[in-house]
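Shall we go through a protein fold together, starting from nothing but its sequence? Label the sequence line and the structure token line clearly, so we can match residues to local backbone shapes. Would you write everything just below, so we can both look at the same thing?
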Amino acid sequence: MGALRVIRIPWMLSRGDVMLRPRIRSLFRVVSESGSRGRIPLCFQIHVRGSFRSIGGIHVFLETEGLHGADVGMAVESSWMGRGYGAQALELLEDFLGGEVGVQSVRAHIRPDNEAGLGLARSAGYECVRILDDGTLCLEKRLHRNS
């Protein structure tokens, strides 16, 4: 069995007007850094300061082998779109993944008709690395580790 690592998931990530709150029961995850391949799900609710309800969510699937990559999916309620909250939430998540977790790259699979999602991903620095058989775009961003 490979080395084990504990990932501490903060009860809240916050910057500016946006807060991410984990939707998991445990704030710790134990993963094998060199064990079998798999994915660990993490889910966060997106909140805006002054609002008591969630305006969206982010789902993350961490690769268990080495924790080098992650797949990310995000949804923001349409009434909250266009205000920059999705961009702030994505940046906050990337800082957490690249810093505390040590993820090196993040991928997003976005349908070509999802103009808002594509615009957000491209403005955040994601680049198309391949197109899947169903036309879905696979976009990827390399993260710089925060010290």
